[in-house]
Amino acid sequence: MDSIYSIIGYSASILVAVSLFMNSAFKLRLINLIGAIAFSVYGIMIEAYPVSVLNILIVFADLYFLSHYIFKKEYFSIVEISHDSQYLEYFIKFFGADIAKLYPEFTYRTDENTKVLLLVRDLVPAGIVFYEENPEGLFFIHLDYVVPRYRDMKIGRFLYRDSLGFFRNRGCREIRTPLYGKNHLRYLRKMGFRRIENDGDIFSKTI
C-alpha cells in the first residue's frame, strides 16, 4: 500500500513540475489541474488533510481559469503589412531564435514577391505568415509562426478554417507549405492539410 501512495505522490509532483514548463497557459492549467487532483487524493490517503485542502483549492482555481480560456470571447483579425515594414523587422529579430528552432530552413527575405500577414488576437500581435502567390491561384507559405503565448490552435483555426474567404478574395485556390518536423505535421493535419503524394515534404489545402 505504501508503494501505491508513493506512486501517486511522485506522479502528482511530476505533473505539477511539468505544468510549469508549458508555454501555453491553457496546457499549464490543464496539467496542473490533473496534478492537483492527484495531490488531493494523495493527501486524503495518507491523512495529510492540509495538503488535500490546499490542492482542492488549486483544483477550483484551475477549473475557473480553464473555463475562462474555453468560453472567453476572443477577437481575431488579419492585417496585411509591407514586406519592408520596420515592425516586421523588429518582430523577426525579437522571435528570431524561436523561429529558427521551429523553422530551421526559413530565411527572412524582404523582396516584393513576399506577402506578409500579421495575425492579431484581441488587438495583440500573435503570429506572422510569409507567403508567395502565383497567377494560377497557388499560395505557398514559407512561414506560419505563432508566438509561444498563443499556441493553442486558435490562431490556426482562425486562419485556415474561419478565414478562407480572405484567401478566396485574393484568387487563392490552393495553399501549400513545407513540413517542419513532427509537431508541424500534427498541426498541418489538424488544419486540414494533406501530403502531396509525389512530394512528401509538401502539404496542400484546397480552398
Write the layout of secondary structure elements.
Layout: H1 2-19, H2 25-45, H3 49-71, E1 76-81, H4 86-94, H5 96-102, E2 115-121, E3 124-133, E4 138-146, H6 154-162, H7 164-168, E5 174-178, H8 182-190, E6 194-196, E7 199-206
Parallel strand pairs: 4-5
Antiparallel strand pairs: 1-2, 2-3, 3-4, 5-7, 6-7
Helix pairs in contact: 1-2, 2-3
Strand order of the largest sheet: 1-2-3-4-5-7-6
CATH topology descriptor of the largest domain: Aminopeptidase
- Indicate the structural class: alpha+beta
CATH class type of the largest domain = Alpha Beta
Helix percentage range: 40-55%
Q: Give the CA-CA distance, first to last residue.
A: 58 Å
Nearest-integer average pLDDT: 91
Annotated CATH architecture of the largest domain: 3-Layer(aba) Sandwich
Number of strands: 7
The biggest sheet amounts to: 7 strands, mixed
Uncertain segments are none
Order of helices and strands: HHHEHHEEEHHEHEE
Strand content: 15-25%
Number of domains: 2
What's the overall geometry?
elongated
Tell me the radius of gyration: 22 Å
CATH superfamily placement of the largest domain = Gcn5-related N-acetyltransferase (GNAT)
Number of helices: 8
